[in-house]
Amino acid sequence: MGFEHRPRLVAVARALAQQLGLERRARFVEGSLGETPLPVGGAYYLYNPFAENLYGPSSSLGGDVELSCARYALDVNIVLDTFRRAPKGTLVLTYNGFGGCMPASYQPIRTQRELPCVLRMWRKTRSGDDGGFSPAGAD
Amino acid sequence: MTDPDQRPSSLRPVPIRGDHSPADSLAETQRIAADLADGRLPRDATFDGHLPLEARALSSRHWTPLAVAMRAAEWFDEFAKTHRGLARTDG
User: Taking the domains of chain B in order of start, what are their residue ranges?
Assistant: First the structure.
């Protein structure tokens, strides 16, 4: 399930899934973090998803959504909170990170550096979360 | 059965190539699907042809390269095979 805040990109994703015959397996939620609940899953994949907030206009996909440093911080914190609340066993795959540090309740279990950016799989190994951060993955 | 042309615009199939006809787009999509099914990796630029025109030039900055997406899928698949408790989400 994908989560995207630009309606035109959601439409493209849905059309492509339909053409590939994947519409029953790949679904897309249109919404903004903080307004639309993030779908709950057993595994998450993120490719530095909020960096557009920090890019200049030449790298922007359009002004049809709010982009700002404040939005960046808000979105990163919502995702971080989602990870902290997730049940033990939850998987997170990050490619070039997600903008924040992973909670200490997650351990990296696979890492590949022979890609343009670092790909890392994390697994939540503790049920509770003390608000701390993992020392791993600071690359 | 509902006449497809009478469906609300939001439910009609969307041509996903800005510079190709829907038929061309479908054929290319099917080629990409066949390549992926056979373990061949299409060029990112080929896949990017499905993006809106204004987004293609920015694809490498905003979207996961296909090689990385394939590796991520492999990792999830391998994890699921070795950890029976992981809930399947592919219906």
Answer: 19-82
pLDDT digits (tens, 9 = 90+) for A42-83: 999 999 999 999 998 888 888 889 899 999 999 999 999 999
- Token pair of A113 as six digits: 């550096």
- Cα separation, B74 vs B62, whole angstroms: 21
A95/B75 touch (CB, cutoff 8 Å), yes or no = no
Locate the domains of chain A by residue range. 1-31, 38-139
Minimum Cα–Cα distance from B79: chain A residue:
A91
Determine, for residues A61 and B67 on separate chains, whether the beta-carbon distance falls below 8 Å. Answer: no
Looking from the CA of A32 toward its CB, the CA atoms found within 13 Å total 10
Note the pLDDT tens digit of each residue in A87-126. 999 999 999 999 999 999 999 999 999 999 999 999 999 9
Beta pairing, strands A106-112 & A119-124: antiparallel
Token couple for A99: 């903008």
- pLDDT of amino acid B50: 80
Q: What DSSP state is assigned to residue B80?
A: H
List A112's β-bridge partners, or say none. Answer: A119
